[in-house]
């Protein structure tokens, strides 16, 4: 991100993927685990989708406001007057928070950054996250999450399709949507698999260390990405549950992951624009505490208060539901 060239990105030479790419994969793995838990605990799909909406949209809405009306006028090369005279300034918030656009531009913002005019390059994945929520609900409605066996068979079928498409076709290279479905589907469903089989999967270094070595051995094969995702997924759950639960203790203060995700890119763009001489390590050192503070504020001021409105919003939606056929018949005048 510092130079705009992926070849110089952290971890690119070591893994073949950028730090951002790998972070998104981890995000989807964790999401698959937590969303499967949310679906199981929800009384119905109304409660499930309300929870998903409140988890994504309010924080995204505020991020868009901060970006457009706090960062924008100060960082745009057009100046405040020119910036606010552009229609794109005023449409950015509704288009971004509704996920109708992937990575909308703001007039003159970050024009001289290596990733020129990119305002929040991370947000494009949220649309795929939302689609994963819908997909999991469909799996649940079809009964494929009812037993470990059913989901295991489904996951095995997905893996077979994933391997076949990856190894024996060029669909992932030629059609972006296919690549995204395979990549995000693998990560999200792996997290779901971890939740469904959580009582059956041992979390130990005896399994973790061989899994970490697997991508090294398969680096030049068509299943390298699969091996890397499996290794990262297992490592994530090992870190969360084994070393005295340090990650969980940190999460006891609040779930700041979403805030880090939605504020990370624009904060780094600001830093790069202000201090173009920064190298990658210094950028991370300076930007990380700022991003974390914004994520903490997002959680306590926006995300958690919004989630606490879930019960009230669910009740209101249920009251709006159309009367069922029997109620409609009973309430209609006799002919």
From TrEMBL:
GO MF terms, alphabetically ordered: acyltransferase activity
UniProtKB keywords: Acyltransferase, Membrane, Transferase, Transmembrane, Transmembrane helix
InterPro entries reported in the protein's UniProt record: Acyl_transf_3_dom, Acyltransferase_3
Keyword Transmembrane applies: yes
Residue stretches spanning the membrane: 16-36, 56-75, 130-146, 151-168, 180-196, 201-218, 224-244, 256-275, 281-302
Domain of life, per lineage: Bacteria
Acyltransferase domain residues: 14-299
DNA repair is among the record's keywords: no
UniProt-listed Pfam families: Acyl_transf_3
Record protein name field: Acyltransferase
Organism of origin: Maritalea porphyrae
